[in-house]
Amino acid sequence: MRGPEPSARPRPDRALLVLAVALGAAAVVALGTGAVALSPGEVLAALARRLDVALPWDAHPRAETIVWSLRLPRVALAILVGAGLAGAGAALQGLVRNALADPGLVGVSSGAALAAVAFIVAGGVATSAVPAALAPWTLPAVAFAGALAATTLAVLLARQGGQTSSASLILAGVGVTSLCGAGTGLFLFVADDAQLRSVTFWTLGSLGGATWALVAAVAVPVGLALAVSLRHAHDLDRLLLGEVEARHLGVDVERVTRRLVIAVALAIGASVAACGVIGFVGLVVPHLVRGWLGPSHRGLIAASALGGALLVVVADLVARTVVTPAELPIGIVTALAGAPVLLVMVVRGGAMRGLP
Amino acid sequence: MTPPPAVHARDVAVTAGRATLIAGVSLDVLAGEVVALVGPNGAGKSTLLAVLAGDRRPDRGDVRLAGRPVSGQSSRDLARRRAVLPQRAGLAAGFTALEVVMLGQDGGLPRDRARAARRRLAAVDLAAFADRLYPTLSGGEQQRVQLARVLEQLGDDGGRALFLDEPTASLDPRHQHLVLALARRAAAAGHAVVVVLHDLNLAARHADRIAVLDHGQLATVGAPRHALCPDLLRDVFAIDVDVVTAPDGHSFVIVSPRGGRRGSDRAA
Q1: Spatial CB neighbours of B66, under 8 Å, sequence gap ≥ 6
Q2: A304 part of a folded domain
């Protein structure tokens, strides 16, 4: 009558194992794909050699450099960004008890993008004041601030009488998103050609800028956000009963909300700062995982993180191979894959699952 | 020195805008006792329960659980001192009945937790429903799952307070008595129980004392045979009743067919 009977649900640890294996396989394929094609064996040998482990077969002479310097940073960034987007999406959906609470739909991504674009176009003066050691962190910090401001605004606007209703949250999100879009448009209007090119990167997304420094800069906020979300997984489960009932069970609703909003903004802000807006990952992955594993947040957040990483690794692989030598913005790939899933969710009424 | 009452309210008043919801209610409930709150619609039963449970801050008065003031306690501290069954808990997510019950638990090994939750489901007569998805259950079944969750939070060690807001609302007669028997058992384990009821006979059958609330004030508090007096019920509920004593000694309220004749007076 409503979804499969739970006896059909796999155990979360098995699902995590399946996803981890799939992610590993996708990563090996992605590492082997490019101008110089490498077999999975060559990829593994190249990975192992840097770690001083010799595998009993030979790799392409330049495989180690290609894998470690060129492709691994990009795949690592894809994993982090995918895990951050989908893990944060799962936490946000639980927090507001709405399966439609995609970071993109509640204004987080657009807030981060507005802040990033404003910084690119008008922030040149500010950059010169930042010490060189902190320079790579400036843009992520700005995007994070924009994400936090937009999320807070949307959640505050949507709160009525201590409850965050799904309809008001989506309406508030639409309002905040169009406000940010108008602001972004203003900055685009005054931007020069070079700035416009880097702005296109922000609005459609690309992992092309991946470096190890960027990977490190994204790993910290994404790791923190996932840790905070997993720590409050039981609180999120209890929040599904309603805010009053969660409070009866001892959940400090205000504190949990505050922490998770910051965690979500941290993950989304860092992701948008590193590779622009990649839509639908934070919406579609948690939804699919919820249908597979059930609504319990510990498994849901962990599996969503792995599933999001898998999706972004594959989407990036498609984005950079389908029109070689050019690259498709990855946001177009995820939108092409994700938008139909969203429409199916709406038609089947699944989008409203989990509402109070 | 006697321990402080499990639930203590002194001169509690609640207003909402210009309306007075509770006007100076004082009530003590002891550990081991079941007190039924009855009264007509709008008398303030749910408001009083919310104040006692710490959900709602009274505008005036002192509320304590086991001697500690309720206001200022964190939700975590309060959760260790009392459990609350709301009138209806809206949970549409795809949890199983067992998972809903386990939401009432705090810590413990997964296997022990599942076993304890299954026992609790068996206690509310839902042993076979553990793996059913909560949204597919009937209203009465959902209510009993929620009760199991609340009892799981309360535990069996006594010394806490249990607040039930119309726990029998959508239950058949057998399960109405089952739920109140469970409230009784919680009291026997050393908890204090406050239960909002509409059915005076259920209250008479299962409560140690009945508190009759009318227009935000306590009309009377006492053992069923004293609280359920025909004159008082006529004043409060605007119904004519006969109160008889059942063979087992419990009071029994029979509403006479002239019931409701004063309804228009009250509305005016």
Answers
A1: B3, B4, B6, B81, B159, B160, B161
A2: yes
Residue B259 domain-assigned? yes
Which one has a higher pLDDT value, B32 or A8? B32
pLDDT at B185 over 60: yes
**How many Å apart are CA A199 and CA A179, to the nearest integer?**
17
Average pLDDT, chain A: 84
CATH of the domain at B234: 3.40.50.300
Cβ(A108)–Cβ(A144) below 8 Å: no
Exposure letters A157-183 (e unless 16+ CB within 10 A, then b): bbbeeeebbbebbbebbeebbebbeeb
Question: Is residue B61's pLDDT more than 70?
Answer: yes
Is residue A41 one of the residues assigned to a domain?
Answer: no
Structural tokens at position A213? 């420094």
Which positions 40-69 of B are in contact with A (Cβ < 8 Å)? Answer: 53, 55
pLDDT at B265: 44
Number of domains comprising chain A: 1
Q: Evaluate whether residue B1 is within a structural domain.
A: no
Is A35 inside a domain boundary?
Answer: no
| Number of structural domains chain B divides into | 1
In percent, the amount of chain A with pLDDT more than 70 equals: 88
Contact yes or no for A249 and B79 at CB 8 A: yes
CA distance B190 to B33: 8
pLDDT at B266 over 80: no
Q: How far is A97 from chain B (nearest CA, A)?
A: 9
Is A2 part of the contact surface with chain B (CB cutoff 8 Å)? yes
For residue A155, the enclosing domain spans 70-352
pLDDT tens string B74-121: 999 999 999 999 987 666 678 999 999 999 998 778 889 999 999 999
Determine, yes or no, domain membership for A28: no
Chain A residues touching B83 at Cβ < 8 A = 248
Please tell me the pTM assigned to this model: 0.86
Cα gap B51→B61, rounded to integer Å: 10
Does ipTM exceed 0.90?
Answer: no
Phi, psi of B245 (to 5 degrees): -105, 125
The answer to the question of residue B38 being in a domain is: yes
Average pLDDT over residues A171-195: 87
CATH of the domain at A157: 1.10.3470.10
- The CA distance from B131 to B147, in Å, is 17
Contact between chains at A241 and B89 (C-beta distance less than 8 A): yes
- The C-alpha R_g of chain A, in whole angstroms, comes to 20
| Partner B contacted by A1 (CB < 8 A) | yes
Task: Give the closest-approach CA distance of A34 to chain B in angstroms.
Answer: 43
User: Which of B15, B5, B21, B3 lies closest to B64, judged by CA?
Assistant: B5
